[in-house]
Specification:
By secondary structure, the protein is an alpha+beta fold. It is built from two helices and five strands; from the N terminus they run H-E-E-E-E-E-H. A five-stranded antiparallel β-sheet has the order 3-2-1-4-5. Strand 4 and strand 5 form a beta hairpin. Helix 1 packs antiparallel against helix 2.
């Protein structure tokens, strides 16, 4: 095993990074489900952000009244390339927000953060475990 172990560091590093990213976002989503408060919100507009690689992404801006009575209006952290009829301007949606920090919220049916986090966690776990197994087999058969 001369230089082969060096090349196995590539999928191992990618796997660990994906696993860490996925675990971090799953933990945040779980915390929001645990302490979050549900409120009815109104989509007031969409922020449009463009990147060089793809077309525009639309981030709905929602407004709601918090449990303590103050008005909140924030843009979603999750954007999509297409806005469906259910999420057009003027649509009523349900949000789940952190009462301590209302900027942390999720729009029911729009935010796919937990799904993306699960995907990253599964891919990261598979890459990490597969690389570790391959390295162990390689070391044991020397």
């Amino acid at each position: 095993m001369e230089r082969e172990w060096f090349f196995s560091l590539i999928p191992l590093t990618i796997g660990v990074v994906f696993l860490a990213f996925g675990a971090y976002w799953l933990r945040r989503a779980s915390a929001l489900r645990r302490v979050g408060v549900t409120a009815e919100a109104l989509i007031t507009r969409h922020e449009t952000r463009r990147s060089d690689d793809s077309g525009p992404a639309y981030f709905p801006v929602v407004a709601w009244r918090a449990r303590d009575g103050h008005e909140c209006e924030y843009a979603s952290t999750f954007g999509r390339g297409v806005v469906g009829d259910d999420f057009g301007v003027g649509s009523h949606v349900m949000v789940q927000y952190d009462p301590e920090n209302p900027r942390r919220f999720a729009i029911d049916g729009w935010d796919a953060t937990a799904t993306v986090a699960r995907l990253f966690t599964v891919l990261g776990s598979a890459l990490t475990a597969g690389t570790v197994v391959a390295l162990l087999v390689r070391l044991l058969t020397l």
